[in-house]
Records
---
Amino acid sequence: MTVTTMLDRPAAHSAKTIWRNTTVVIGMTVMVSLILISVFVPVIYGVDPNDIVPIQRLKPPSVEHIFGTDAFGRDIAARVLYGGRVSLLMGALVAFFAITVGTLIGVISGYFRALDQVLMRIMDGLMVIPGILLAIALVAVSGASVRTLIFAITVPEIPRVARLVRGIVLSLREEAYVEAAIGLGTPVYKILWRHILPNTFGPLIVQATYVAASAVITEAALSFLGAGLSTDIPTWGNIIAEGRMYFRIAPWIIAFPGLFLAMMVLSINLLGDGLRDVLDPKSSFSGRT
Amino acid sequence: MLRFLIKRLIATLPVVVGVAIVVFLILRLAPGDPAAVLAGGTATPETVAEIRQKLGLDAPLLTQFFTWAGLVLHGNLGTSIITHQPVWNLILQRAEPTLSLGATTFVVSIVFAVPLGVLAAWYHQTWVDRVVMIISVLGFSIPAFVVGYLLVYLFAIDLKWLPVQGFANISRGIGPFISYITLPTITLSLFYGALIARITRASILEVLGEDYIRTARAKGLRESTVMTRHALRVAAGPIISIVGIGLAMLISGALITESVFNLPGLGRLTVDAVMSRDYPVIQGLILVLSLVYILINVLVDIAYAVVDPRIRY
Amino acid sequence: MSEPVLQVRALSVDIRGGGDRTSAVANVSFDVAPGEMVCLVGESGSGKSVTASSVMGLLNTANLRLSEGSIKLCGEELVGASKARLRELRGSRMAMVFQEPMTALNPVHRVGDQIAEVLRTHSRGMTRKQIRARVLELMRDVYLPEPERLQYSYPNQLSGGQRQRIVIAMALALKPALIIADEPTTALDVTTQAQILSLLRGLQTRYKTGVLFITHDLGVVAEIADRAIVMQSGRIVEEGPALEVLTRPKHRYTRMLLDALPVAVARPPRFEPDAPIVLAVKDLTKTYDERSLFRKSRSTKAVDGVSFDLRRGEIVGVVGESGSGKSTLARCIARLITVSDGRVEASGSDVAKLPNRSLSGYRRKLQMVFQDPYRSLNPRMTVAQLIGEGMANIGLSQREANERTRRLLDLIGLDHSVTSRYPHQFSGGQRQRICIARALAMEPEILIADEAVSALDVSVQAQVLDLLEDLRSRLNLAVIFITHDLRVAARICDTVAVMHRGKIVEYGRAVDVFAAPQHEYTKQLFAAAPGTDVLGQMVRH
């Protein structure tokens, strides 16, 4: 349609267009608040999350303990607020590593035919293993520490990123302007850097949010299944896991970390959906495949 | 058709080998000494050495791989370190609840999510679309162990409509089976259905921009016919393939959901194995579940070829 | 004249949120009589397709809005009619044939069923058997071979021409009063186009249908139209009997369109016949292997033993229909893909088998301009970066590059101030000029233009062709000009090579080939070019 092409200017992905999207704003606001709370919790909430007070066992929410206490009499609010730190760390670092490694693999296998087959078979192999199981196995052999957890949660996320990037690279390789650059004698590294990589930024930012959300859930799930960090370091997952036994009599032990976990993941996903609508409107489902 | 099937099965071989290599390498290449981890913190060097020998960790890597692969090819997944039962038997004993939950979730998700996805695409950018998208983003974001406990609290503890936890074999009658499986199914369907609804919506929106949709409208067809006979029919291929790929998430989700509802399935087996660091069981579980996943995706590809005549057998 | 089947009065369509232009169609009025073929002619953005969509009630309401006017189909008002009524009319009283036959049919339904769907939707009384019989009858009407077998095919098993016949059969199914054909032959090869045009003409006479035929191609107008309506920027600028509009245009714009039209009479070569040979292609072959586990591997020859010489200052036209291998040939010569067999000699050395890393010298010497100016410029780079990319690769300093860029902008007729702008701020013709400047920045001896003007409007086409012609004589460039358009080839080429199924079937001076084609295929190709008779006469006048 001629009129639409006339109006169809490549969207300038300016900060303005992004901020006009309500989903992005809501997601961003909630996420930033949770991040700030987690970072400044020692300043704003002066209760030690590991402070055991036997007399205060399983107390429901009150003025003194706004989220109640657990079976050891520890303050749930403190545990939940400190627990956010682990989740955030996991989300951010896993997203960073998964995107970096995945992009590298994706670009290599998309541009260099010779390596494509080998790399993609390995990615296929990784992809068919249910993510949580793979992470559980990795943690089970190496013992649970922040480092091994990041490693274990990152590995299953890599193939998705690699496939996404590979797909973009493959389609761009056929793009006339890439052919034109080859014709101008532009070296391979410059073609990748100037003509191909900039096109992956939009989809990758979106993908990064999904990876972060997934990492937060996976970390909590691992803790919940008993393959996470020890309870000296409170995480939303291990608070819930500890609360399971007292679920009928003290549902607040599960409710509050559950609420925070849900809010965190929801806000990241909303941010991702909103960014996708703005940055990457065409591949509306590549994020979750 | 048969040729397509054979071709497809042969194409999975490299993936199967890939999985086998990954599963094998996890134990050998993960940071830390697995023997030491398996033995526990208080073990003497002798015990660690013994475990290492028992697991064959002292042989060269390639030898280890071929010994292990040879056993696996003969259907021998090893024996549990704790119960000393063959891993294969343990998996078979625990398969039923997991299969039941997987099947009910699969059916419920598709029955509800596909129509919702179609509606959202049809009424794109209206309140219908927004409601469906909000439900689906919630379904995606709230972990199964949070939704699960919420549902238990509401329907089992507060309203007392359904049993809190546990599982009833289908042999105990359809009534008990349903009453026990309902909450786990809802929990898992919220998650899996969210995925399917999103994919359905996105695939249909993509198809709606195609020229043949304009042709269909120019023929004077009803909008409902355009949506179903033309749009959904073409989108069915991509939807089916994403449903297949999403099964990996369904499997992960099932393990957690089982744990919430105390279903004696593969999820429980996994948790027990993790707790006791029963490595052969974990390895066997990964291998079997991955193979199941691969096999289901072969079926998915066949289904794709059936709905889409563009794919040649 | 009997009551018109279509009566459009004062139709205006607004562009929602349109910046520089607020209306796509402004105050348009015309009639289509029963059995009349009316051509709506115009370049892109003229509003011709929007007019068609408005009639069908299929306007894209996301960015367009019918603001006022009246559209009457056989006396019945369509503007403001209920959605249900419009749906009843679509397919039964008015039908549409679209531009892209490759995508206009649903890929997952059999073609017979897709025709039957029209009958099932609109005539409830028909039995299954009657519907089947009618589908076969329609398929015979559009001259599809073996309808009994073909009705069970899926669209991807048919050729473009066959698919367009199916779409036409669908449109004719209920003998509508009006058929709107929106550029129905633009995506087809000339020979197929000729067949479809004569089919439409024949059926229209037989069924007494009024046809609103939308096209940008004056050749097509000359071929089939009873009456022509010329549109520019949303307005009708001229209207009248087709022959009169074409031979005695009144409006400036129509005259400009006609003048811009390249005419299929070639001119004598304008290069020195003994100029040095800059490129010699010898027995060039490109085979694609289809590897398969089960079957014997098949190989197809996309280019099959092609040889020709190119002299300094010569423009050689490689002419052929889609699939003839002309673009593959261009890519082989430019070494964007590997060559299977044969030699490509430039300055004494064979570049056909050189590995990519040793090609930098050759790349400087040979540059390419691609078909689609919208896709061959990286949207994230400024004009300065785009033109400068090649110069940076050969180690020119920033100052030299800027200097050369300015000279090139003068050459292609763009202002120096554009260097900081991005491609989307330019029109198609301007972008193609930038592509040419980018190629010339390398100071090449040889330029390959691969369908370089095909995506452009006629008037813009003429400007770009003039530019190429001018550059050739100023810079003494040798040009390989790949095109499917015979008229364009006749206008610019000194020598012509006609390609068919990977081979050159005819090769010679353009004047000779165009005056007296020797090969059977070339003759067919020339005969199929639309409007040759009428437009040819015009030249003599």
---
Amino acid sequence: MIEPGSLSLHRPFRERSFGIARKLMRVNWLFVLCVCMLAGVGYAALYSAAGGSPEPYAQSQIIRFCGALVLMLCIAMVDIRFIAKFSWPAWLLGVLLLLAVMKFGHVGLGAKRWMSVGGVEIQPSELMKLFLAMAMGSYFKRATPEQTGNLLFVLPAVVAILIPVGLILKEPNLGTAVITGTIGATVMLGAGVRWWWFAIVVAIIAVCAPIIYEHLHAYQKARIDIFLNPGADPLGAGYNIIQSKIALGSGGFFGQGYLHGTQNQLNFLPEKQTDFVFTIIAEEFGFFGSIGVIGLLVTIVGLAYYTALSCSHVYGRLVALGIATNFFLYCFVNLSMVMGLIPVGGVPLPLISYGGSALTAVMLGFGVLMSIHVHRDVEFPETEDL
Amino acid sequence: MRRQAKNRTSFTRRALLIGTGQAAIFAAITARLYHLQVAEHGKYALMAKQNSISERLEAPERGIITDRFGTTLAGNQQHWRALFMKAMAPDPDAVLENFYRLVPLSDTEKARITQDLSEHPGYIPVLLKDWLDWPDMAAIEVNTPNLPGVIVEEGASRTYPLGPLAAHVVGYVGRPNQKEAKENAVLALPGMRVGRTGAEDAEDTALRGQPGFVQTETNVHGEVVRVVAQDPGTPGQTVALGLDAGLQQIAMQALGNNTGAAVMLDATNGEILAMASTPSFDPTLFDKGVPSDTWKSWMTDPRHPLVNKAAAGLFAPGSTFKPTVAMAALKCGALTPETIHDCPGYFKLGNHIFWCDGHIAHGRLTVTGALQVSCDVFFYKTALDTGVDNIHAMASIMGLGVDLHSDFPHTQSGQVPDLVWAKQRGIHWVQGDTVVQGIGQGYLQLTPLALATMIARIGTGTNITPHIARRIGGALQPASIPGAPQPLDVNFAHLAVVRQGLFEVVNTPNGTGYGARLTIPNVQMAGKTGTAQVHNNTATEKAAGYNDMDMAWAQRPNALFVAYAPVENPRYAAAVVVEHGNFGAQSAAPIAHDMMTYALLHDPAGRDKPLANPPPMPPLTSPKVPAL
């Protein structure tokens, strides 16, 4: 017997779990639509990157996306309290994977970042960002303001951030390490840790920057130097930045037309299907197309914040904040890099760039985010029931 | 409850603050984008127009193949070809239409172009037409404005100066197939070739080289303004084979219109000095594309011109197998050098009679004498006393029926059966099978290359292995370094007995190979004839008094001859098979004689420079056989 009103979207669920149909109705479909639209933009860009052909990029990428979308919706159906139980095990798994990639991973572009698990290429640092957000959420989910103001209480969380950050630095992957640290810090900030502690840490890092620079790897230094003066070697290392800016700038307001961008079609940018995919959109659709894509990215981040703010439990709020920040940082780093605002580092534009590892990691995060959204009204038990 | 509410307010405040910060950063990015794309559009659009430098990969030149003295066996010839870069054409279909009107192409070619264009990114040039002639070139040049993206450039094609004379050993190249091009993007470049057979296949990696690139400055229409930088890449390495082109030609001439194969090795290190297989074919056709009627005629020819009979042709060795049987018998004690068997002209096993060749009664013979006159009855008995497993073990030592791990591709190991082999195939092995194996018949299947290896091993007592490459990029290959082969695992006293028999075959009037003895002074050759039946004569044929010469060509016995020279210090080893040539002494031995004469006069083994003044070569003795 279905009670009248049992199908209402606003009927709160507290103790008992709810059926798949109700859960599906509570999914934020606007969010899913935005994600799919972004993947559609990615298909168009990759089709153009191959000179107007679904092979070799667009076709395989959209197939990967469809798989990831199903995975995301499946995770969204899982009770967030159940997921929360695995926060620390996930953190531990992430750390073990980072250790494994150091030992068994293969070297790509001078760094050990990738490893193959059962034939699937994974980049543990991408997964670690999500797992760290979950672990932080779990640590602070019952913290009182007194505790968050207590350095001794906060210290273990700092250690839990520094371990993966240190391992990722060791790979070496400076960009992802900074992003991972930032995500951890943002969740702590959201949890109520004193804001001026962060100010002190930022100040210390700023002062130490020259010393850190001295200890960077040669290729990392080269990137920073080239960023500061790209004209020094126009056919060498500065080539990408210059060509990328020309691609953006020649797009104008309405672009050169789909499949007619000269920079893209004449292959001035090698490997443009990965990190520099945004230049294709910007060149062929102009500023008009660029703000369309940025609008989609902002909407997705905004909807993630909506989930965080509408969630009744601390765990969901903090993890949603972490996932929103993760996605934001992907976009920020990639777009700034393409525009020559920050040194080049291998960070893809999520859901648009060609490649499976970042796509899978982002969609896993969105799965957890949707689970939070679906289960935003559930009550967490007052004590740990592990 | 109150604490939770307070927490939530604090979170909301902080989250909104962080979110606002992120929104501000997005706004800053958008502002920067506006600046780049709209405000500075003019500047960058100009840069894009003046731009720009684009990069294109170019196929490296394939390395050349020479013989040991530097004579080119496979080289490259320049020719002109038309390529198409789709990315440079505003309307690719219209350009193709224009091109087809100027240079007519077949429908299959058009379909290939359409497929290539759909499979590769727009900046990979696709081949439109190879081997442009002058009218085509002129038509394209005049119509350049209607053909944006069409590039005419020089390409290299493969030439084989010796043509059919060294087709099997040098091999040929072909265009990479789709699977290969997918696995290795470099192979997708127009002009890339992959070795398919022979030395082209064996040393493909060394011959291929590394691709270069051309950086060209193009204007906004994609037209090349100038070449900025060019890197020719690394051309493939020059591969010098152990082959002697002169000897190779003698071998092919001596084989003439016969169907068969001839191999000559440096007996001290296994270098292949000559490898001939007839009938042959024109290897250049594979680079240009084989006309379909030529292909059809190759496929239907009963003499299989494309098969390298020297390395992959399997033949019963006949009496050339007897030295191996003798070694096995001496080793296991079934025979001593003094053992005498009587030959009444036949051998009776149970109810079955095995005849000696021509039903001749040889009388009382030692092993040396039996080899000299090639007595079958002696070896029927010996094989039975030795056992098939011992024969198999000795054959393996001699390099027969085993994988020789040669660098030459597509070689066959052949088979020398033992009891395990028979059991695996469910063959009920009877004593009669062992008896016929003693004279190299039955299930035995061997290649001329393996037989040459065997006779070289008997001659030198070392475990040489045949190999084709002598120098790659000038560096002497390890297998060609003198003294590399190890001594054979045999009793050298036994080897001396067998060598004496082989000496007598060629150098005594009673020997079966006496007709092929060397006529040049101060040097002698040792060898063994072989005549292997390919057809079981039926009772009716026997009753009718059959004669091998009268039988249909395909049913006549195969003729074989193996030899090494000089006898005291062997340097050259040869194996010759003439398919359906009847007697080994009659058709195969003269071919070996001619090759050996040339080799001893020119002495190519171990040399990188030919002899300055070789003595004149006497006329060939090998009989010319009319074509089929």
